[in-house]
């Protein structure tokens, strides 16, 4: 099997302190489920059970988009976890157009990034490769909220 090495996910304005984890999955129909389970297990294990459902849904939507809309051989999911927040980066090696949220009201698809936008504290896209793009990343941040005190 050929090894693919990409530079770390770009997002210089996001805090990068914390534990880092990576999963590289083949771009197959199983990729959304595999990455969803990876992120869910990771967040439960690292003490973020309150973020599990939103993170699982968001990573599933982003990976599904990469599967449906790219010919990338692999999808890489990088997760940085710290005490307050979780940062997830989904990278594919298809440097096509950057995704944008929005769906027609009666369309059968196109709601994935609308869901990501509604559930996350921040999200965005980046590309790598200078003048010739070589990869794109969709990233999102979920913040652990302090419990309400009455």
Helix content: 25-40%
Which runs of at least 5 residues are low in confidence (pLDDT < 50)? 4-15
DSSP strand content = 25-35%
Radius of gyration: 15 Å
N-to-C series of helices and strands: EHHEEHEE
Mean pLDDT: 82
What profile does the largest beta sheet have? 5 strands, antiparallel
> What's the β-strand tally?
5
State the strand order across the main sheet.
1-2-3-5-4
Structural class by SSE content: alpha+beta
Shape: globular
Termini, distance in Å?
A: 56 Å
Number of helices: 3
Question: Could you explain the architecture of this structure?
Answer:
The structure is a single chain. With 150 residues, this protein is α+β, with helices and mostly antiparallel strands. It contains three helices and five strands. A five-stranded antiparallel β-sheet has the order 1-2-3-5-4, with helices on one face. Helix 2 runs antiparallel to helix 3 (112-119). The chain is globular and about 45 Å long. Residues 4-15 have low confidence and may be disordered.
């Amino acid at each position: 099997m050929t090894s693919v090495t990409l530079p770390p996910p770009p997002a210089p304005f996001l805090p990068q302190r914390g534990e880092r984890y990576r999963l590289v999955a083949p771009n197959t129909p199983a990729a959304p489920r595999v990455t969803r389970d990876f992120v869910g297990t990771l967040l439960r294990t690292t003490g973020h059970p309150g973020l599990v459902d939103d993170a699982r849904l968001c990573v599933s939507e982003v990976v599904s988009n990469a599967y449906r809309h790219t010919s990338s051989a692999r999808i890489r999911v990088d997760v940085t976890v710290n005490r307050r927040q979780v940062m997830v980066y989904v990278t594919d090696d298809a440097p096509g157009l950057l995704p944008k949220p929005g769906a027609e009201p009666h369309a059968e698809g196109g709601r994935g990034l609308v869901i990501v936008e509604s559930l996350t504290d921040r999200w965005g896209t980046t590309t790598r490769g200078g003048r010739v793009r070589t990869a794109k990343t969709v990233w999102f941040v979920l913040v652990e909220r302090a419990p309400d005190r009455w």
